[in-house]
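**User:** My hope is that you can spare some time for a protein that puzzles me. As I understand it, each token names a local backbone shape. I would be glad if you read both lines and explained how they fit together. The protein I mean follows directly.
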Amino acid sequence: MTRTRNLTVGLVTAGLLGVLDLPSFLMSSDSGDGPPLPVAIASTVLGLITLVALYFGWRGDRRALWTVAGSRILSALLGVPAFFADIPGGIKIAVAVFLVVTLFAVGLIVSELRKVHQPS
């Protein structure tokens, strides 16, 4: 599979989001300032899955690229409850930005994966 510009941008963006997910478990607290511990751990695990799949996807493995997209979607879904919680507006804005960037990255990756491969 050749790596197009759209795929490269999508993968780099997904990789950056995956790296940002890694320290999530450190942000969890019982005082309510951060996400609940299970959500923070899940976010960290999804970030790690993204980065491992990204390594193989960068090398052309289509299944790994689907895994990158799936892990990013699941990570984004973990942020949705923030819109219904009593938390500061700045955090809600940050979550919204992450959701939009995730949709951008996944859209670029999936659009390239959906193209029919033409043997040369």
Summary: The mean pLDDT is 90. The radius of gyration is 15 Å. Residues 5-113 form one domain. Helices lie at 5-21, 37-58, 62-79, 89-113.
